[in-house]
Amino acid sequence: MPTVDDVLEQVGEFGWFQKQAFLLLCLISASLAPIYVGIVFLGFTPGHYCQNPGVAELSQRCGWSQAEELNYTVPGLGPSDEASFLSQCMRYEVDWNQSTLDCVDPLSSLVANRSQLPLGPCEHGWVYDTPGSSIVTEFNLVCGDAWKVDLFQSCGFWA
Q1: What is the C-alpha to C-alpha distance for residues 6 and 74, in angstroms, rounded to an integer?
Q2: Paired residues of 127 in beta bridges
Q3: Contact assessment for residue 143 and residue 88, using Cβ atoms and an 8 Å cutoff
Q4: Three-class secondary structure of residue 45 per DSSP
């Protein structure tokens, strides 16, 4: 039975043509590397939560820190709730411009339990925890549109 060395002797060793083909394939592979690796950096999804109109004014009036604002206004981040998927993709359907809202715990004046408050989808965009931009933050590819990042990555492999 012939060995690999015997077959290489028959077809020829690593000659000029093989060197050219190898170099060409290396150049092509190097030019496609950013497509395969780039999505790792460009498709990064930072922490995010719904942007609520009126919360910024209430937060400024009450002097809340960023942590207090999240604690009072984001579902799933309150004292009795656990962090959940809802905290990133849903928001309380509350009119934050009401004059009856208290600065200490604004939602307690509306209902006794936060779970009774109606939740709605994010309609005014998202606030991201990380400064800078990526494909995700530029086009708001979070929650219901998160599948588009995976589609973009898959299309990159067809290139």
Answers
A1: 71
A2: 49
A3: yes
A4: coil
